[in-house]
Amino acid sequence: MKNQQVAQVLNEIADLLELRGENVFRVGAYREAARQIEALGEPIGEIDQRGDLDKIPHVGASIAGKIHELLQTGHSRYLEQLQRQVPAGLVELMHVPGLGPKRARQLYDQLGVVTVADLKTAVEQHRVCRLPHFGEKSEANIRQAVEQLLQRTRRLLLSEALPMAERAAEHLRRSSPAERVDLAGSLRRFRETIGDLDLLAASRDPEAVLDAFTRLPGVARVDARGETKATVITEEGLQLDLRVVDPSVYGAALQYFTGSKAHNIKLRTWAEQRGLKISEYGVFRADTDERIAGATEEEVYACMGLPWIPPELREDRGELEAARERRLPELVALEQMRGDLQCHTKWSDGQRTIEEMVRAAESLGYEYLAITDHSQALGVAGGLSSERRREQRAEIEAVNRSLPRLRLLVGMEVDIRSDGALDADEEMLAACDVVVASLHSGLGQSREQVTRRVLAAIHHPRVHVLGHPTNRLIGRREGADLDLDAIIHAAAATGTALEINAQPDRLDLNDSHARRAVESGVRLVISTDAHSDTQLRYMRLGVATARRGWVGPLRVLNTRPLHELLAWLYDKRTEASG
Ligand code: DGT
Ligand code: CA
Ligand code: CA
Ligand code: ZN
């Protein structure tokens, strides 16, 4: 970690302390330490190795300890703790140009403004200019900054961006002379959120492809157009970029525009070491400028002595090293999924009947589907009483008798109560083929409390799967502050599976959590938690998350054929109770 990065973390701590209205001397101490570190003449890592951190002027024992942790582990628990204590919106607010922590705090205290969107409303209602230290002029500046920020920083959910981009690509394939059209950028890597949508086309006639692009259905206006690239804004306000390249360099361009930036930077460095240059125009010998590859991605990686790397892995998280050592993981694929282990029906808060869900699952070619309506405590979600659950089980059994191909599993999503007990009695749990236990409330509990609660569920002999483990909602709610290492360790020890929930705003476990879990030998399930028939198609997003987490098919229980799954479900609880 560079001096600059360490200084940035200290400044961020100072900002958060200031935002919380902490003692000015404490805030000042972090800022001063950051300044000192930025001005150092040698790498701070070396100072740390000598044990001399606290000899840096203005760095006391406490700050030295935090720097040491940062250098050793790459993160700071103190910073993370502060981040959790301050509303996420407020942190964003503080970074609005012209605000800073003090004024963000003032807006929060005096106008109740928490998010950038709140601030937009406040300036539109002219409430900001009436505050002390603000005036007409600064209100107008803030208004401008906010509008720019909202345009620039709204990241879309993958599920919002993907269908749009795929429709556009499909349309271009049909209505333009392009030889190939692909999604690029974060879309092709299936990141959970997307900044802007990048498309790439191969053609010797860019003019014609760009004509077709700017006339796509749903395009509201053309933002920019050049000879080989254009940017359009859709009716939904999404920005779509297209670049057209010659077919002979398509592979190099696709590799470049897929990213990630970090992956590309490392690849370029490695290329230099081999006397090569890589750009969007191809791979070249550094001495003669002779082009040696470019038409396909495989070719580009092969020049580097590497196998082709799946886009989901291209985040510079060790994939290049793994490729070099020929140990890239086999990744789970959508076609391998044989069933879905969490969905809801009209019996609780789903929108479809059991039969309707069954038909949708059959059309996906599934061998099994678990019906997992909510337990009683979840009143808002229409949780089932024991009486209603018996009725539902009778219906599931009746439907099952009429099904030749698909097996319905009796399940439930049982709420983990705030004391860690399950919201269901032994009889109800015993009547289920599969039990998914999930957190839904009490997310604000301390790390210790909420972790203890989830550990109790993992250790419960009747629980097969921990559903949406952190209960985060992307862009809207931080998940519970779980000690994930403890959760993973317990899941490995008990054989309880962890879920990758494929709801587009959940994707929970996320990619890096999933990777940590499989590295520890934990089994996963990928479930859609569908509340309607069409939502069963979210499986794709869950699989993408798993792939980004280096997860192979054997780690995922619902790639297993029905008889193997049933054996696991059965064994899991007899072993646990035996
Ligand atoms: P996003 O749009 O924020 O979700 O993320 P990306 O990854 O789609 O980023 P974007 O749209 O800025 O750029 C698309 C790709 O272009 C990116 O993944 C890698 C490539 N790229 C962009 N800028 C650079 C750069 O400065 N250096 C390198 N090597 N590649 C870049
Ligand atoms: Ca992008
Ligand atoms: Ca872009
Ligand atoms: Zn749930």
Q: How many whole angstroms does the radius of gyration measure?
A: 27 Å
The CATH superfamily label of the largest domain reads Metal-dependent hydrolases
Question: What is the fold-level CATH name, i.e. the topology of the largest domain?
Answer: TIM Barrel
- Number of helical segments? 24
Mean pLDDT: 93
CATH architectural group of the largest domain: Alpha-Beta Barrel
CATH class of the largest domain: Alpha Beta
- Principal-axes shape call: globular
Distance between the termini: 50 Å
Low-pLDDT sequence parts: none
Helix content: 40-55%
Q: What is the makeup of the main sheet? A: 7 strands, parallel
Set out the fold topology.
Elements (H helix, E strand, L loop, with lengths): L2 H17 L4 H15 L5 H6 L11 H13 L3 H9 L2 H7 L5 H12 L4 H9 L11 H18 L2 E2 H18 L4 E5 H4 L4 E2 L2 E6 L3 H9 L4 E7 L3 E6 L4 E7 L4 H9 L2 H13 L2 E4 L2 E4 L5 E3 L3 H7 L15 H6 L14 E2 L13 H10 L4 E4 L14 H16 L5 E9 L10 H5 L3 E5 L8 H13 L5 E2 L17 H11 L2 E5 L9 H9 L4 E4 L11 H10 L13 H16 L1
Parallel strand pairs: 4-7, 11-12, 12-13, 13-14, 14-15, 15-16, 16-17
Antiparallel strand pairs: 1-3, 2-4, 5-6, 6-7, 8-9, 9-10
Helix pairs in contact: 1-2, 1-5, 1-7, 6-7, 8-9, 13-15, 20-21, 22-23
The structure holds 2'-deoxyguanosine-5'-triphosphate, calcium ion (2 copies) and zinc ion.
The site of one calcium ion (CA) has 5 residues, from helix 11.
